[in-house]
Structures are given as structure tokens and as C-alpha cells.
Amino acid sequence: MALEFTTLFEGQQSGLKVIFPDTGAAALARRDWGETPFRVTDLGSRATGIERKISEADEIFLLVCPSSVEVETVEKLCELAGDRPVILLIPQLEDVSIVGIGYAARQLRDRFISTLESVYYFRPLDDVVVLRSYPSPWLVFLEKEDGYELIAEQGQKPMGEALDILVNNALKGEEDDSNQPQPKKGGIFASMQSFLKALSQ
């Protein structure tokens, strides 16, 4: 997927640097992709910091699958990049078990994670899908018996308690079907197919 994503930068690939979280992933990409017009590297290590991985010739940074383990290094990369764009492909920076839920985690979210702009976001949850395709607003879909229904459009990313409130408000007016047998769900692929069908209507 990362290699396919690089084609979006046609004409700028000589200034593109694709960065993987670790040395092994970067080495595999170099082996599998062969010769490329862009450079492939990793986020560095304790011995080799991110400062030594970037140069003035770099114009765009594409960071592939960064996790919450690398969040401080990702923040440092964004600082070093200055006005140059840093694109995070499939980031997973908010793992509560690693980042935590206390004061330090809140500081990290306020200082860095909250400054990131989600350009494309798709997250299926239990009976709910949160979607965004920039510059459109955040969309919340609720799964019904006959497909997915758009229940909210938001300027900010709906999450946690705010998302629960949206779903509960949408369910308030519905009849209580608790005594009716519920249709068997078809699994994640059937659910995804149903959602994509609802989007195309």
C-alpha cells in the first residue's frame, strides 16, 4: 500500500522520503521495491536519532504505520520538517496501553496528536462507522437492518463519550425491538460491503 501511495507524488518523488518505524521494515521495503526515485529509511534508534535520517534535500516525508511506541520520534520528525509536509499513513499513535490515560498522555494529545489533520479516516466500530474524507466533515453511520444510515456530520472527530451520545440520540426514537429475534450478522466483510453500498447510494 505504501508503494502505491508514493505514486501520488509523481513529479516530486526525487524529494520524497519514505520512512518506516524500524530498520527491518525499511530493509524489506528496499528489497521488495527495488530501485525507486525516492529514498527509503527508518525512524532511527537510540544510537542514530531521527536528526541523522533527514536532510535539506527532503521535500516530503511519508511515514508508514507509526505506532504509539514511536510517537515522540514522530513528534521530533514533525518539528525538524518545519514547513515541509509530513504524511502519516495508517498511524496508530493513541494506544492507551502505551501512551497512558494520565496527565502525560493528555499533554501529548494536546501538544502534538491534536495538531494532526486526518485527511482520510475509516473506522468500523460495533454497529457504527466513523468516516472522513478531507475536506468533508466527519460522518457517523449507524448500522440498521437494511444497511447503514448517516446519523451525524461533525466538524470535529467524534470519539469516546461524544460518539456514544450521538449514537444514543439516534437510537432514542426507535421502537424497542428487544423481543424480536435479531438478524444474524454476516461478519466484518459483509458489514463492510453493506456500508460501501450505503455510501454509493
From TrEMBL:
Top-level taxon of origin: Bacteria
InterPro entries (alphabetical): Chloroplast_ADK, DUF1995
The DUF1995 domain, residue ranges: 1-164
Name of the protein: DUF1995 domain-containing protein
